[in-house]
């Protein structure tokens, strides 16, 4: 009888680990907004990493967050770092790794605490009309096995997408006021 109970427990414990073998481990999220300003004006604003402090939901979650910067903003190699005791913010840094002037800025996000991860992100601008610009903000991520099991319980794409969209909506308000 004890063998059957132990075998049953082993099967119950093994099921999630086997299931995780068949669950995605990557996710990708992109959100967009249309801003009634010329593409050059919008791009000049979004390529400056310090400006994310004005519109990013994450940058505004902790008013006591310590922020430091290295390098020249709006250039490849510029790093914006943050440290917060709020576990929803944590500790990390973001570096500009590529700029396609007027079109795209690529970032590398390096999360240090409460978890470690390095993930790519980007912002793109596209002229829709002379005074109208489409901005995309995207983020991709990866969860290693067996942590990818979390995809069954947490919809990262919806959760992160809502935060990106809130930031883009704030960006629109800021730029259209100017």
Automatic annotation (TrEMBL):
InterPro entries in UniProt: Polyketide_cyclase/dehydratase (IPR019587), START-like_dom_sf (IPR023393)
**So which domain of life are we looking at?**
Bacteria
Bilayer-crossing regions: none
Q: Which SUPFAM superfamilies match?
A: Bet v1-like (SSF55961)
The protein here is known as: SRPBCC family protein
């Amino acid at each position: 009888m004890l063998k059957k109970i132990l075998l049953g427990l082993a099967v119950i414990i093994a099921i999630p680990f086997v299931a995780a073998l068949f669950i995605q481990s990557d996710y990708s999220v992109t959100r967009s907004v249309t801003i009634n300003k010329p593409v050059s004006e919008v791009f000049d604003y979004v390529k400056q990493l310090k400006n994310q402090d004005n519109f990013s939901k994450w940058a505004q979650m902790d008013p006591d967050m310590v922020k430091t910067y290295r390098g020249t903003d709006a250039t490849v190699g510029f790093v914006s770092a943050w440290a917060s005791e709020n576990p929803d913010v944590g500790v990390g840094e973001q570096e500009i790794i590529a700029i396609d002037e007027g079109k795209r800025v690529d970032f590398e996000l390096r999360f240090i605490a409460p978890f470690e991860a390095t993930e790519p992100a980007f912002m793109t601008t596209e002229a829709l009309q002379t005074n109208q610009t489409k901005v995309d903000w995207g983020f991709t991520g990866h969860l290693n096995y067996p942590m990818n099991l979390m995809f069954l319980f947490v919809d990262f794409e919806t959760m992160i997408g809502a935060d990106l969209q809130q930031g883009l909506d704030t960006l629109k308000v800021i730029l259209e006021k100017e």
